UniProtKB/TrEMBL annotation:
The chain crosses the membrane at residues 46-71, 77-98, 110-129, 135-158, 170-189, 201-223, 259-277, 283-301, 313-330, 336-362, 382-401, 407-426. This is Uncharacterized protein. Pfam families: MFS_1. Keywords: Membrane, Transmembrane, Transmembrane helix. The gene is yqgE.
Length: 431
C-alpha cells in the first residue's frame, strides 16, 4: 500500500469505525441517538470502561502488594527492579508479536486471554508462596505477557469506540475508575493483610484478584466483535520514524520520557512507603488518600480539558508533578511521601490526559492512519516500554552502586522530570 506523506503536524481527523464497509461488526456511531460532538459515551464505551475497571481493580487489590511481598521475602530492591524489567520486556515483545493476531484475527480473544493469563500469574504466586523471589524473572515475564495481551486489545478497541470529541471524557472516566479502584482495593488489601497472621493475608488478596479477573472475562463477552481490517505490517514503526516530517518523530521520544518516569515510580514509591512504615495498613491508607485525591482531580480534568487547552495543561501538570519530588530532599518518611503522593495525584491528570488523547487523535488523523491503528498502538507501547526499561535499568544500576539515600533522591528527581522533556517534544504536536 502506497504511503502518503504527512503534512507537518496537520491533523484532519478520520473517524474510527469505517461506516458502510461490508463486514463491519460495529459502525462508527453504535448509538444513532448520540449526537456527534456532544462528548457522550455509548453503551460499548461504558462496557469497555467496566472491563477496564475490573482489570484495574484486580491489579489494585494485589499489584500494590506483589512487590512488597517479594521484597519481604528477599529484602533486595535490585531484585524488584529485575522483576519490573522482565515484566516490561515481555510486555513490549507481546505487543509487537500479538499485533498480527489483533489486526488479522479476533482482538477480543487477545483481551480475554490477557485477563486469563493475569489470573494464571496469581495462581503461580499462590503456588510458589515464599519461594516466589527465586522465580521473579519467570513471574515478571508471565505478568508482562498478560498485560501486553490485554492492553494491546484494549487500546485498539478504545480507539475504535471513541472519537476526538469524546476521547478526553473517556480518558477522564478511565482515570476516575482507576483512582476509585486504587482508593478502595489497596486499602482493603492492607486491612486484610494486617489482620491476618504471616502471609495468609497475601494469599487471600491474590485469590481475590484471581476471581476478579475471571469476572472481567465474563463481562468482556458482551463486547461486540470488532471488524478485521488489512494485514499486519511488522516494521511499520521503523518506517514512521524514518519518514521526514512525521509527527511520530516527536511523539515517540515524548512517550519514551513518559515511560521512563512510569517504569520506576510505579513500584518504587509503594516500596518506599512500606519500608518507611513497615506496615501494610499504612500503605493501604496511603493508596486510599492519594487515590481519593486522584479521583477528584480526574473528574475535574475530564470535564475541563478540551483540545485547545491541552498545551498549557500538559506543561503545568509536568512541572508540578516534578516539583512534588522536592520534599524527599528534607527526609523520606511517611509524611513527605504523602505530600508527594497528593501532589502527583492532583496534577498528573493535567499531564496524562492531553498526552493520551493527542496520540490517539493522531492515530485517527486520516483513513490510511486509522487503517493501521494496530501498528500505531504497538508503536506507542514500544516507545513507552523503551522508556520504562531505560528507567528501570538506571534504577538497578543506581541501587547496585550506592545505598546513599541522597543518591536515590537525585535519581528520582532526574527520572521525575522526564514529563517536562515529554512536553518539550509534544508541544508542536499539541498545536
Amino acid at each position: 500500500m502506497q504511503h502518503t506523506k504527512h503534512k507537518r503536524f496537520s491533523v484532519p481527523v478520520y473517524q474510527a469505525g469505517f461506516p458502510g464497509n461490508p463486514g463491519d461488526a460495529i459502525p462508527s456511531h453504535p448509538n444513532p441517538r448520540r449526537k456527534r460532538g456532544t462528548g457522550q459515551l455509548d453503551r460499548q464505551s461504558i462496557l469497555l470502561l467496566t472491563v477496564q475497571g475490573l482489570f484495574v481493580v484486580a491489579n489494585a487489590l494485589s499489584g500494590t502488594f506483589v512487590n512488597v511481598y517479594l521484597w519481604k521475602m528477599s529484602r533486595n530492591l535490585a531484585l524488584i527492579g529485575w522483576f519490573a524489567l522482565c515484566h516490561q520486556a515481555a510486555l513490549g515483545l507481546t505487543f509487537w508479536l500479538a499485533g498480527r493476531w489483533v489486526k488479522e484475527h479476533n482482538k477480543m480473544h487477545s483481551l480475554r486471554l490477557g485477563m486469563l493469563v493475569s489470573a494464571i500469574f496469581y495462581l503461580l504466586v499462590l503456588f510458589l508462596g515464599p519461594k516466589a523471589p527465586h522465580y521473579v524473572y519467570g513471574l515478571g515475564i508471565v505478568q508482562g505477557i498478560a498485560a501486553g495481551l490485554f492492553w494491546l486489545a484494549y487500546n485498539v478497541v478504545y480507539f475504535e469506540i471513541t472519537e476526538p470529541h469524546n476521547r478526553d471524557r473517556f480518558n477522564g472516566w478511565a482515570g476516575l475508575l482507576g483512582a476509585g479502584a486504587g482508593m478502595a482495593a489497596p486499602w482493603l488489601s492492607g486491612y486484610l493483610i494486617s489482620r491476618m497472621a504471616e502471609t495468609k493475608g497475601y494469599m487471600l488478596i491474590f485469590s481475590l484478584s484471581l476471581g476478579v479477573f475471571l469476572v472481567g472475562v465474563v463481562f468482556s463477552l458482551f463486547l461486540k466483535k470488532r471488524r478485521v481490517d488489512g494485514s499486519y505490517e511488522w516494521l511499520h514503526g521503523i518506517r514512521c520514524l524514518r519518514e521526514p516530517g512525521s509527527p511520530w518523530r516527536r511523539i515517540v521520544p515524548a512517550l519514551a520520557m513518559q515511560g521512563m518516569r512510569e517504569g520506576v515510580f510505579i513500584f518504587v514509591i509503594t516500596l518506599l512507603v512500606f519500608i518507611s512504615t513497615g506496615n501494610e495498613m499504612k500503605l493501604g491508607n496511603y493508596s486510599l488518600i492519594t487515590s481519593a485525591v486522584s479521583l477528584f482531580a480526574f473528574y475535574l480534568a475530564g470535564r475541563w480539558l478540551r483540545p485547545k487547552r491541552r498545551i498549557p495543561a500538559m506543561l503545568l501538570g509536568a512541572i508540578l508533578i516534578t516539583l512534588a519530588i522536592t520534599p524527599f530532599f528534607w527526609e523520606v518518611n511517611y509524611t513527605t511521601l504523602l505530600i508527594f503522593g497528593i501532589g502527583v495525584s492532583l496534577f498528573h491528570p493535567l499531564y496524562i490526559i492531553p498526552m493520551t488523547s493527542t496520540v490517539f487523535d493522531f492515530i485517527g488523523r486520516d483513513e490510511e492512519s486509522a487503517a493501521q491503528r494496530v501498528e500505531y498502538v504497538v508503536l506507542r507501547e514500544l516507545a513507552l516500554n523503551a522508556g520504562r526499561m531505560a528507567g528501570t535499568i538506571l534504577f538497578i544500576l543506581v541501587i547496585s552502586l550506592s545505598k546513599d539515600p541522597r543518591v536515590l533522591n537525585l535519581f528520582l528527581l532526574f527520572i521525575g522530570s522526564a514529563p517536562i522533556v515529554s512536553w518539550f517534544f509534544m508541544r508542536a504536536v499539541l498545536k
